[in-house]
Design brief:
Length: 235
Amino acid sequence: MDSIPRVPSGLLVSTALAALIIRAASAGSSALSLELISGQRRCFYEDLPSHSDVAIAYTVASSSTFSTLSIRITYGTDPHDVVFSGNEISRDATRFRTKEHPDRDLAAYKLCFFEHVRPDSLVVAQAVWYIDVSMKWGAHAKDTGASAATMGKDVGSQQHQLQKILQDAQDELDDVLTNLDAMHARKKLLAEANEELNAKVTIFSIISCAVLIMGSFYQRFHIYKYFKSCRIHYR
C-alpha cells in the first residue's frame, strides 16, 4: 500500500504567509482629519494599488449654509488627469477605481477638498469645515452584499444631480428674467421723469420769454413817458 506523501509544515506556513502578504499589499485603509477654511484648498497624497476599488467615507461638519464641500481626485501630479470629481460629498460616500499601472505596484493619487459656493447664494460667509476622511481599498473596499443597492443608489444620485443642475439652470434663468423686468421698469420710470423734466423746462422757458418781453415793453413805455414829461420828442 502506497503512502500519501506528506507536505512539510514549513512549506504550508510559507505559503500562508505569502498569501497574507499579497492580500495585505492589495488591500488597506487609512484615516485622517482636516480643517478647511473658505477660499482654501486642502490636498494630500495616497499611494494606492493598481486597478483596485477605493471607498472613501466622510464625516463633515460646517457652519456654512451657502456652500457645499467638493472633492477632486487626480492621478499623480497631472492636474488634468481627473479620476473623480464631485460636489456635496457630505451626503454619500465616494467610490472609484484606480488606474492600471503595470510598471509599479503603487501609484500616488492626489485628493483635494475645496468649498463649492451654490449658484443661488447671494451671501458668501466665512466658514470653517471639519472633515474626517476614512479610505479603504482592495478587499477592504468590497461590499458585495450591497452592490445592487449601491448601483441603484448611484443611479438615483445621478438623477438627483441632473435634477439639481436643471433646477439651478431654471433658477438662473428666472433671475435673468427678473433683472430684465427690473431694467425695463427702471427705463420706463427714467423716460417718464425725463419727459416731465422737459415739460417743466419748456414752461419755464415760455414764462422767462414772456417776462423779458413784458419788461421790454414796460421799459419802452417808461422812457416814452419820461421824454414826454420833459417835452422831448423822438421818433
